[in-house]
Amino acid sequence: MAKEVLARDAAEAELQRFFDEMDLVFNLDAMDAEDQAGIKGLKEVCIRSLQIGRLTIDDKGQPVFTPKGQDAKPIVFREPTGADLMSMDMQKRNHSVAKSYAVMASQTRENITRFSKMGTSDLKVCQAISMLFLA
Fold it and tell me: Which end of the chain is more exposed for a tag (fewer CB within 10 A), N or C?
């Protein structure tokens, strides 16, 4: 188990700073139970990664994730643009995983193969960040 470098309340404050900087608002009261649980789960993944120091929020409010796998170069998650979202259109119909990797690759300026080769423990953090941008 990784050692905590940030207390939970500090990690929650950092996550909120990301939300504030990127104008991300999650009105849980307006969501059904399934959507509420989904957002809470995504937040928990990010909070835990912040606590162990693998996720940070830079001075622009952008999440920066450092994978623990073979390629430990930090990944900066920029606010997605319309062009980033359009990258999904380049993937085949019903290829939802490829579509999500395409958006992550476009918004991070990384090659899509970086995500396809990533272990699930790193990948779930990347997916959580990306999904919070799109929720």
Answer: N
15 φ/ψ angles, rounded to the nearest 5 degrees: -65, -40
Q: Residue 23 carries which side chain, given as an amino acid letter?
A: D
Query: At how many degrees (to 10) do helices 120-134 and 96-108 cross?
Result: 80
Classify 91 in phi/psi space as left (phi over 0), alpha (psi -120 to 50) or beta: beta
For residue 41 the two structure tokens come to: 């789960």
pTM across the whole model: 0.88
- Per-residue pLDDT of 42-52, as tens digits, reads 999 999 999 99
For the chain, the domains span: 8-134
Q: What is the DSSP string of 80-132?
A: PPHHHHHGGGGSPTT-HHHHHHHHHHHHHT--HHHHHTS-HHHHHHHHHHHHH
Q: Which amino acid is at 68?
A: K
Distance between CA atoms of 58 and 31, rounded to whole angstroms?
29
Instruction: Of 20, 46, 13, give the one whose Cα is nearest residue 130.
Output: 46
For residues 114 and 82, the model is more confident at 114
